Each structure stands twice: as C-alpha cells, then as structure tokens.
Amino acid sequence: MRVASTIVLGCLLLGLLGCQRGKKQAVVIDPHTMQTRTTAVPRDPFGSASPAYAKLVEVTDAAYAKPWSGALEEFAPWLEEETVAVERALALLKPLRTGPIDVYAVANGRIAIVYDNIADALTEASRLAEAAGFDADWRGQEGRLWEQSSAFWGRCVRGCSLEGAHLDAWELRCRTGQANSLAKSGR
User: Fold this and answer.
1) pTM
2) Taking CA 63 as the corner, what is the angle to CA 85 and CA 90, rounded to the nearest 5 degrees?
3) What are the pLDDT digits (tens) for 35-51?
C-alpha cells in the first residue's frame, strides 16, 4: 500500500515529465518564461547510437559551448566557426534520416540549439552594429535564422511525440524552442 501511494504521489509530482502521460494530454509551455541559453540540453534518452550521431553531438555541443564574446570585431570569426559547425552537423544528420526516429528527432533538436545560439548572437550583433553606425552585411538575417531554427525544432517535436515517453524531456525542450523561435521570427 505504501509503495503504491508513493508511486501515485511521484506521478502527481512528476506529471509534467510524462509519468503515465497519454498522447492526447497537452503540456502548455510559455516560451517567455524560459531562456534558451540557460536551459540545459537534455541527456540522450536512448542507448548507444551511430558514430555519425556521436560526432554530431560532439560538433553541436562544442558549437553551443562557445558563445559569442559580445565584441563586434570578434563576431565575424565566431560566426564563421558556428556556420562551419552547422554545416558539419547537417552532413552528419543525413545518414541519421534512415535510422531510429528518436535519434533523428534529438539530432534535429541539437542542431536547432546551435541555430538558436547563432540567431541570438546575430540579433545582438545587429543591434550593436546599428548603434555604432556600422552597416553590417548580416543585417536583417535574424528572421531567416529563426525560421531555420523553428524548422529543426519542429522535426524534433514531431519525432519525439511519435516515439514515446522516453523522449519527454526532449519533447518539452523542442516545443519550448519552437515556440521561442517562432515568436522571434515574427510568425
């Protein structure tokens, strides 16, 4: 009896984490209450994945771990590094399309995190460049990057929602990311 009541209480307390959650129960997340940069990247919910996925994790984690310093003179080199990281991650994503849906969904989420990182920095760099009177060649590109981010978040959400409760943390992260990127893209 005590074990059963502890499990029920645990399910009530952890309900948002997916304890006995059915597909028809929606979880509402206000994207304005979460900041993308401070939101932790969830752990991988599956066992060992392919070498391509392992490399993708390495590339995206390294890109995410290196935020822009905030100095305009360092923005272009930083942006170049981040762009190369995204291109490498996209190349690594291709073989994952034919693998397990959960791995593919989380890979899309990881790429979306890097896009968010770039779009946030680009938004701030554009603001700083305009305030300093510079005519930056990246000006006005934020919306396009937020749309790219939203597309990757969307693939993550769809894949996570199809695969089951083991992806609940990623599904929540991806839904939050998608709502945030849509709001920032102006859609």
Assistant:
1) 0.75
2) 35
3) 444 456 777 776 666 89
C-alpha distances out from residue 10 to 45, 179, 180, Å: 20, 29, 30
d(CA 84, CA 90): 10
DSSP 3-state assignment of 152?
A: helix
Q: Are 112 and 63 in contact (CB under 8 A)?
A: no
For the record, the structure tokens of 74 come out as 């360092």
Alpha-carbon distances of 101 from 81, 96, 161, rounded to whole Å: 29, 9, 10
Cα 116–47–106 angle (5° rounding)? 20
Q: Of 181, 22, 40, 46, which Cα lies nearest the Cα of 106?
A: 46
DSSP labels for 25-43?
Answer: ------GGGS-TTTSPPPP
The pLDDT of residue 64 is 93
Find out whether 181 and 112 touch, Cβ atoms under 8 Å.
yes
DSSP structure class, residue 44:
P
**Residue 75 and residue 77: Cα distance in Å, rounded?**
6
Q: Is the dihedral of CA 148, 31, 179, 175 positive or negative?
A: positive
